[in-house]
Design goal:
CATH architecture of the largest domain: 3-Layer(aba) Sandwich
Bound molecules: adenosine-5'-diphosphate
Structural class: alpha/beta
Strand content: 15-25%
Largest sheet: 9 strands, mixed
Number of helices: 17
Helix content: 25-40%
Distance between the termini: 34 Å
Low-confidence stretches: none
CATH topology of the largest domain: Rossmann fold
CATH superfamily of the largest domain: Glycogen Phosphorylase B
Shape: globular
Number of domains: 2
Radius of gyration: 23 Å
Strand order of the largest sheet: 3-4-5-2-1-6-7-10-11
């Protein structure tokens, strides 16, 4: 069945190539292109942060300042427009007071900043003469939109449905009651269900997204199941269980055009599955760049990650030194995050000079060189909603060692020597020795060059493009619209 194209407004607080701190930006910079390729009228909104250069990105003003309600008053928003690769329209909401700053997050007025951007994104719609069928909201920054559509904008946007996507349940946007006034929803009141008593003392943006969106999704099927349990639910599981008929899992894709070892401008030598021999040049170049001993033989383990407990660093820090003492390997890390990990890895790099290198920075071109030059890619996450690193690594021929959780479980198949199947090395228990064992298995297998090569090739031939998942999002948009209409009918009948 082919339906009419949908109008979709996609909101994300970070979008590649304009602003990025993590995977959300990659998704926001690639999923909309795939939906447009399916014939949909999709447009993006994000704040115009100070670091987004108007000239570099060819921004042009499309709406003069207009007033946006904020905390019993109004603040002006200006709308600038550019596009993703000349294809998908991107609106940037400008308010210098709130967004003309060095960083993206972590300001004391973050609640106000993201309320303003979300609300301005709704207020701009009639002014652009473009009313979406679907508003696709992502993470806590945009989670009040479903709440508004059922309250403040019920009359003015009656036919627009919402999808709320959870990219990481650990970041919920928790603030005091005051934000309800800033957002203009205080008068509607709101009590969380009794089991969620804690939430009645705070305002939890994500909780509101889950409560009010017509459909809720997260970024892998396994994580969609996991978050219904207390272990992974981050306190939100009672609410998620109550709404579980509306909770769906759709695996993220990666931008397979941008992330292509056959054409990546940031790597030393191009290669692909048919032409794998040149790949080793990337390893040698990376070893040079990182100050490691240059050797094609020594297995090089790479890691690119935010340095937080979520990513398994508490395990890694316990086993890296014994591993280095007992096995031949090199380790290169790119990441920023918690100070204690910065120090721990700097210490290791000093003590294992020539074998351990750390780059405590955010650097996309260097990330590509690590994907292209490492032999093994490490992601021992405690939880992982989807994870992009392991997919990019496989595309670039670096064999992942991962924990069986969330999207890692859905994308990496454990190597089975008996049947010569699998794309990586998977461990289950969140224990240092389980990680150690998986790494030793990988290092031992690496010595068998033909077997290793076949694991690399299986990983490289996986299809992690957005095509299949974009179609699933489109189906979910239609479902959200149908569910919104059902609700409307029920509420009309009751009311
Ligand atoms: P998360 O969104 O939880 O941080 P993902 O694996 O979903 O984790 O996405 C992380 C993305 O950010 C990947 O594209 C990864 O390559 C990139 N990335 C993470 N840290 C860095 C860094 N220090 N420099 C460059 N890219 C990074």
């Amino acid at each position: 069945m082919t339906s009419r194209p949908l109008k979709i407004l996609f909101l994300a607080a970070e979008v590649v190539p304009f602003a990025k701190t993590g995977g959300l930006a990659d998704v926001a910079g690639s999923l909309p292109k795939a939906l447009q390729a399916l014939g949909q009228d999709i447009r993006i909104s994000l704040p115009r942060y100070g670091r987004i250069d108007r000239e570099k990105f060819g921004l042009r003003k499309v709406l003069d300042p207009f007033p946006v309600p904020l905390d019993n008053s109004q603040q002006p928003a200006e709308i600038w427009e550019t596009s993703l690769e000349g294809l998908v329209p991107v609106y940037m909401v400008e308010n210098q007071n709130l967004f003309d700053r060095e960083g993206i997050y972590m300001y004391p007025d973050d609640a106000e900043r993201f309320i303003f951007w979300s609300r301005a994104s709704l207020e701009m719609l009639p002014r652009l003469n473009w009313i979406p069928d679907i508003i696709h909201t992502n993470d806590w920054h945009t989670a009040l939109i479903p709440n508004w559509l059922k309250t403040v904008y019920r009359q003015s946007l009656p036919r627009t449905a919402t999808l709320y996507t959870i990219h990481n349940l650990a970041y919920q946007g928790i603030f005091g009651h005051r934000v309800l006034e800033i957002a203009g929803v205080a008068e509607y009141g709101f009590e969380y269900q009794p089991q969620m008593a804690d939430l009645n003392r705070v305002v939890n943006f994500m909780g509101r997204g889950i409560q009010f969106a017509d459909a809720v999704s997260t970024v892998s099927e396994t994580y969609a199941r996991e978050i219904l349990t207390p272990e992974f639910g981050e306190g939100m599981d009672p609410l998620l269980r109550e709404r579980k008929d509306r909770v769906f899992g759709i695996l993220n894709g990666i931008d397979s055009q941008v992330l292509d070892p056959a054409s990546d401008p940031h790597i030393a030598v191009h290669f692909d599955g048919q032409n794998l021999e040149p790949r080793v040049e990337n390893k040698l170049a990376l070893q040079k760049e990182a100050g490691l001993e240059t050797s094609a033989q020594i297995p090089l383990v790479g890691m690119i990650s935010r340095l937080t407990d979520q990513k398994g660093f508490d395990l890694l820090i316990q086993i890296l030194e014994p591993l280095l003492n007992n096995h031949s390997l090199q380790f290169v890390l790119l990441g920023t995050g918690e100070e204690r990990y910065h120090q721990a890895f700097q210490n290791l790099a000093r003590r294992f000079a020539g074998r351990v290198a750390v780059f405590l920075t955010f650097n996309t071109p260097l990330a590509q060189r690590i994907y292209a030059g490492s032999d093994i890619f490490l992601m021992p996450s405690r939880f992982e909603p989807c994870g992009l690193g392991q997919m990019i690594a496989m595309r670039y021929g670096s064999v992942p060692v991962v924990r069986r959780t969330g999207g890692l479980a859905d994308t990496v198949q454990d190597f089975d020597p008996q049947h010569q199947e699998g794309t990586g090395f998977v461990f289950t228990a969140y224990e240092p020795m389980a990680l150690y064992g998986a790494l030793v298995r990988a290092l031992e297998t690496y010595k068998h060059r033909d077997i290793w090569r076949s694991i690399m090739l299986r990983g490289m031939s996986q299809d992690f493009s957005w095509q299949a998942s974009a179609q699933r999002y489109l189906d979910l948009y239609h479902r959200a619209l149908a569910m919104a209409n059902e609700n409307e009918e029920v509420e009309t009948a009751i009311g």
